[in-house]
Write a structure and sequence with these properties.
heterodimer, A: mainly alpha, Arc Repressor Mutant, subunit A, two-stranded antiparallel ribbon, 5 helices, B: 308 residues, alpha/beta, 6-stranded mixed beta sheet, 4-stranded antiparallel beta sheet, 34% helix, 26% strand, elongated
Amino acid sequence: MIVLHIDYNSLKPIYIQIAEGIKNDILSGRLAEKGPVYSQLVLSKELGINPATAAKGINVLVQNGILEKQRGMSMVVAAGARSRLIAAKQDDDLHTLVAALVSAARKINLSEDRLLDMVQNRFTETAPKEGNEENE
Amino acid sequence: MSDHKKDPNVIRAEILTKKYPDKKALDNLTFTIQGSSITGLIGRNGAGKTTLMKLCAGLLTPTAGCLEIFGEPPGNNLKVLTRIVYACHDQPHDKNLRLRNVLSNYQIMFPVFDREFADKLVSFFRLNPKAKYGTLSQGMSSVFNFICGLACRAPVTLFDEPVLGMDAATRKSLYEVLLRDYNEYPRLILISSHLLTEIEGYLSDILLIDKGRLVWHGNIDDLRQSAYRLQGNVDVLESFCAGKHVLYQKHGVTDNIAVVREHPDDETVQEAAAAGLTLSVVRPEDLCLYLTQDTTEEELECLWEKTN
């Protein structure tokens, strides 16, 4: 069932890997909003990890509202969690791209102003034209 | 007030010292373990792991300092001793006893010993309950002693080198059994092993000792986050490491490595990447090794030098 995978050679703490694994399963739709999420015991058993580590991973997601405890029931995926994760992921992806862009610019000693110019030009070049025709 | 005052400290050691005639096995050890956990007791040969466990189990008495289990010293204290089990890979049971009789003895000693579970484990691990204890191989003896220790369901369970002599498949089964039983019956499990990489996922905490002294105690994730390894050009490496706490370094022909005792935060990761250095995680087993290693490359080289 679980496609989560723990990489002990990663710099990422194990509990963060668990939190990210659950996030990915929400993004992919494997875990549905308002539906149940893997319990601490299931994670511990199937991944062969200490239950405290599993709990720590789950708690990260409870704290940022991705998961919620339902009264009398187990943990569920919060309503709206998926769209929030998608937005956050887009933010993350852009961050990564910008970081790569800046470090590429540094490597060739491109100034900040020049880089910003290039970004601006790109925006202008690709701005939607009147009439909405798509430009190749 | 009820008669049993709740002490959150399961084990509390304060400047605990144990001397043998020829050596100091434990030297001013201070730590507390609270609540339930699977704690790895890590250390090199002669670090004092077995001594510490035997002190906890009331099998030895401290030379100085204080050791309390559930708020009371374990020695000669039946109330505490029925809640602690010490299981080492070759317990000194009567060699002529059959396994099922050894289990019966445990049943007498430990009120909560789960005989049904023990019998199931004996068959799960393909042991013959009619076999005599003395006929078991090292690996089988380890398995059997693990079973005895686990089925006691003691609030303090001490496993001293439980996997010694076991093949890889048996070790894997043992770890799974341990983890699942812990999930069913959370308690304090202290486990010593030289194969930390095999068990790191199962552990929540690490207690690292060296030469009878405490080196590190805490959450295993924190240990993982407390150092990083760098690889790359020797000059870049040295300038990057300047002013940092370098635990280990090796400048070789093929590779230059430095292990830095510092949390690898995002900034450090980016700086290392920008400098062209490869930054990677230091597995707890390696980190424990770096923290306790006392031989040097020079000493190693000396082994083959001829002294006329």
